[in-house]
Here is the input.
Amino acid sequence: MSEAPRSFIPAAGHDWLLPLYDPLLRLMGVDRIRAALIDEAAPQPGDRVLDLGCGTGSLAIQLLAACPEARVCGMDPDPKALGRARRKAVQAGVELEWREGFADALPFEDGSFDCVVSSLVFHHLAPNTVRAVVPEVRRVLRPGGTLNVLDFGAAGHGIHGLLSHLASHQHGDEDVAGELPELMEKAGLVEVESRPTRRTLLGEVFLTTGKLPDQAA
Ligand SMILES: C[S@@+](CC[C@H](N)C(=O)[O-])C[C@H]1O[C@@H](n2cnc3c(N)ncnc32)[C@H](O)[C@@H]1O
Here is the structure.
């Protein structure tokens, strides 16, 4: 018997809202917030970089513009969002790898990436999925590789935690956002830091970073 396809929360909550996703995020100034993530990730020529939950591909394309010699791969479970990402890359005249997949079952070999970045994805994941994603990311990182996550803070942060509240209601009341640094440390990442970057209409956005030791066990 074939398995039912896995479900996921799409970028704008519903497929029919996807065309509005990029304009809405531009309005919120998210391109500038993603720039902080790119500065932190600082991809180097030759690095292989994974954009986890790339959606319509804006971050992956921005990353490649920041370091054209990096090899950037965008991955997302949503074929519709990936279709948009592919079209945007063609329009921008850049070549990236696009893969369909889920963050807790990455379709990549161990130690494949120098850097994993993710923007505004973790609040789309159920708490238990987040707990499975962090060790899975660690698996695909090379020694010395980094994980850089941009996302809304716990629903209690800031006065406008609307999206965090909505997202956590979709997953029950458990809110795993504040647990991310601890999960990263538990998975063996070091130099873990989390700081607020910007307050948006939909909540305060945090940048959480960590790296795998140069000599990973
Ligand atoms: C708000 S969008 C963010 C997209 C993009 N990173 C950005 O900054 O615009 C959240 C994305 O997470 C993806 N997503 C949802 N569940 C996922 C999962 N289990 N694994 C990976 N990505 C997932 C959705 O398909 C969606 O594209």
